[in-house]
Amino acid sequence: MPAIRLAALGDSFVEGRGDPGLDGPFHGWVPRLADRLGIPRRGVLNLGTYRATTQDVVDGQLPAVVASKPPMIGVIVGVNDLLSDYDPERFRRNLGTIYSSLRGMNTTVFTAAYPDIPKNLAVPGVFRSLLRDRFAEANSVLREITAATGTLCLDVAAMPEWAEARMWAADGLHPNVAGHQLFADQLTEFVARAAGLVPPALLVGG
What we know:
The chain is an alpha/beta fold. The chain has helices spanning 12-15, 29-37, 54-68, 79-83, 88-102, 125-149, 177-194, 200-203; strands at 6-10, 44-46, 72-76, 108-112, 152-154. It has a 5-stranded parallel β-sheet with strand order 2-1-3-4-5, sandwiched between helices. 43% of the residues are buried. The model is unreliable at 202-206 (pLDDT under 50).
């Protein structure tokens, strides 16, 4: 069995929804990132699942990644918590468990801030305002925990391109093909340089 060199935990954003695949239901940013970093597909473990919450990651995904100890781990989760059964204390506790469990494994761990997804959703204005408050609070918690655990956090919430409709699928919740490609491109430079790597894609001007 080949060694896992890149593992990804999380929800449907990790699964690849919004980016139809040629050899499966979805493609997404995970295999795109692996390609740009020169990681063979057999060395990628993608555990992203539809509607996964932070609790799902803690209970079902985290143990497998801790056991495999890959040199690079990506985590994108929390939006489903924010959109439905939001409990601030549980959210903070679960994020703390996830990132503290991955700390000290001699691995590069990365995530990303939550973009303004409520802007894309066809919901009443009052609910959109509530969701935006949740997303802002979640980003504050995420930045605090990632700073404390040495986790790399790509601040897509501050990047204007993520506010553009052209990056999102029709549901407004998942990135489309362009969005997944953009995220992979941004992560390639951000993660590789933070980890002191020079990926093949950057060597050729990717």
